[in-house]
Design brief:
mainly alpha, 2 domains, 75% helix
């Protein structure tokens, strides 16, 4: 049953949340605690996928996927808890406005893109790198970014900002998963991998489709960002570092897509 791992992941996430709430004696445990636990769950999923790969432990694929889903659901729960806590603090905004919130949402997007794609994959080995990347992103958020909930600057109080962040990070999530697939493409000739991986042509097509998916969302992200900038500062484009690097990223991926279509690269 394909959804068995999703259901088990949902139960594990619910149990984790319940234990946190019970320990803290509140229905809304600190979102930073939940995000921190998500980091370790993603890392655990990556390790189990790795054991599945190295030791040819078939049940490891199911277990790694189930734990990955539990991390995804807990990440999602933590996001909504933080949203509620912004309202309780009197600020009431969608938690996508600072580095910490953006990074934990990035982790959610990476996990989400991969897990929904995994239904169509012939092997689950890719999760070993995907969830490692997601756990590193989450760890960086916990260790280097402030999780404090603060009032928003006037320029950040916009639905266009929400649309901009969601679309951009869906694109970045797809690019991160494409990176993981690309790593396996590069090492697919290794003898101990040949029985686990699809052909290089299949891997190449998967990377290409992920890049197309990410490019679509990044394009929407740049457009919504320009509309937000005009609303907030009266200019669609000001060549600040974030805008410039988003354009450079867009051009690089656009060039890769163009090369694939015209030259078959």
């Amino acid at each position: 049953m394909k959804l068995k791992n999703v259901f088990l992941g949902f139960l594990l996430a619910g149990a984790t949340y319940f234990l946190c709430a019970l320990n803290k004696k509140t229905l809304l445990p600190e979102n930073s605690l939940l995000f921190g636990l998500t980091t370790f769950i993603y890392l655990g999923s990556s390790l189990i996928y790795l054991i599945y790969w190295i030791f040819k432990w078939n049940k490891g694929a199911f277990l790694g996927s189930s734990i990955g889903w539990s991390g995804f659901f807990l990440n999602l729960l933590a996001f909504f808890v933080r949203w509620v806590q912004t309202h309780k603090a009197g600020f009431g905004y969608v938690p996508l406005s600072n580095l910490y919130e953006s990074l934990v949402f990035f982790g959610l997007c990476i996990a989400g893109v991969y897990l929904f794609l995994e239904f169509k994959l012939p092997t689950k080995i890719f999760g070993s790198i995907v969830f490692l990347v997601a756990s590193l992103i989450m760890a960086y958020a916990s260790l280097k970014a402030s999780s404090e909930i603060k009032p928003l600057l006037p320029a950040l109080k916009s639905n266009w900002l929400v649309a901009h962040v969601i679309t951009c990070f869906l694109g970045y999530g797809a690019f991160a998963v494409a990176f993981a697939f690309g790593v396996f493409y590069l090492i697919s000739d290794k003898r101990n991998l040949k029985n686990y991986l699809p052909s290089k042509t299949t891997l190449d097509n998967l990377v290409y489709k992920l890049i197309l998916f990410g490019f679509f969302w990044l394009t929407l992200g740049i457009i919504t960002g320009a509309v937000w900038a005009d609303q907030a500062w009266g200019s669609y484009w000001s060549w600040d570092p974030k805008e410039t690097w988003s354009l450079i990223t867009w051009l690089i991926y656009g060039g890769a897509i163009h090369a694939k279509l015209t030259r078959g690269w």
